Amino acid sequence: MKPKKLTFACATCIFFLIIIYSIVIIFLGDRPGGQVLFASQQPPNIHYESFDPYIFKIIQGSIKWNTIGWPRRTIIMIMRNKDDSYGHFIETDLFQKGDKISVFWTNNAIEVIFPLGHKLIIPKKVFIGGR
Q1: What is the pLDDT along the chain (131 residues), one digit of tens a residue?
Q2: 34 φψ region: left (φ > 0), alpha (ψ -120 to 50), beta (else)
Q3: pTM over 0.85
Q4: What b-and-e string marks burial along 62-89, b requiring 16 or more CB atoms within 10 Å of the CB?
Q5: Contact 123, 109 (CB under 8 A)
Q6: Are 127 and 114 a contacting pair, CB within 8 Å?
Q7: Per DSSP, what are the bridge partners of residue 120?
Q8: Which of 127, 72, 84 is nearest to 105 (CA)?
């Protein structure tokens, strides 16, 4: 084999390996991390009368490719206690791993207070009824 053909073959091989590596990284990186960063169970004295009990979770989401350092998204999930594949999802940047938040369950909503003072109110109509 001539040196030019060998160089071209090596360059082509390296190029395709980089493409395959990039596809694998993007595929794996775009999947939710799934790590539960925070969880709160519906208290027994709160009744929504629709698929109770519920659970409030903050989980690690997929990578933010457009942000320096590639941090992961943070997702708030409210779902039936036994079924985490279906529920109400909210993406937020208000929570970082290790933050102390307060969650208050009321008969009409779930209220979340983040460390910087932001308050999120999630009305029960958006997460009850098997949504």
Answers
A1: 566 666 878 888 888 888 888 777 666 656 666 788 899 999 999 998 888 889 999 988 877 777 777 778 888 999 887 776 778 888 887 777 777 899 999 999 999 998 888 899 999 999 887 55
A2: left
A3: no
A4: bbeeeeeeeebbbbbbbbbeeeeeebbe
A5: yes
A6: no
A7: 112
A8: 127
